Amino acid sequence: MTLILAIPANDGIVMASDGQITTGLVRAPGKKVYPLGETAAWAAAGELALVQRLAERIGTLPPGRSLVNLRDDIGQMVKQSITELMQLDFRASFFAQDPDTLLKLHPADFVFAEFDQGPHILHITVDGVPEWVNEAPFASGSGDLFAYALLRKYQGQDLNLAQAAVLACKVMQEAIAVDAYGLGEPIDVWQITAAAVKNLTDPEIEELAIRADRLREAEIHLLLDEDIVEPD
Length: 232
Fold this sequence. Notes:
The chain is of the alpha+beta class. It has helices at about 50-60, 65-90, 100-105, 145-150, 160-180, 200-225; strands at about 5-10, 10-15, 20-25, 25-30, 35, 40-45, 110-115, 120-125, 130, 140, 190, 195-200. It has a five-stranded antiparallel β-sheet with strand order 10-1-2-11-12, covered by helices on one side. Strands 5-6-7-8-9 form a five-stranded antiparallel β-sheet, with helices on one face.
């Protein structure tokens, strides 16, 4: 289980994920966000075998191409990866006439982000179809409904990169607390700007957590200080 966030800002994009990888009944910390060249990043929610195959293919991409130009190439890589797994999976023959069930054998969802004269967030489903995300912030994975509920009030707000990072940390903390199964620490946070991709260090994420706690406390105090009139 996974939660991936992509939050656009006026000077970059923040990507964040939980840090728990589940294989069967075994849970272990692991990365779910990866760099894509010098100025982009991507993240994956879903089956580890499929994510690994796609990562191998993405690693062969030539440097210097923008995400806009890579869109269809990456879509093809997703389709090639899932096709290979289907050919290896004996269960696939039982669902050859049921494509919806067939795709559920190896679930996955992919998010790509680049900041080039504005934020570009690309979503690719397990069937390899790419789509640009116009309604952001964007969430993917098993905790996406919790995240969307928490992010809804910030949709359309003009955030800077630092504010988006605090928001990502806060939402990730609260989603992990509510959707305990399959989501877990440590939280991983990345910043994508026109100049570089940066994976925040543990001390930097700890500072984000402190600021997220302050934001949470401010929301509580705002409610408690509100003069609410009881209905007659």
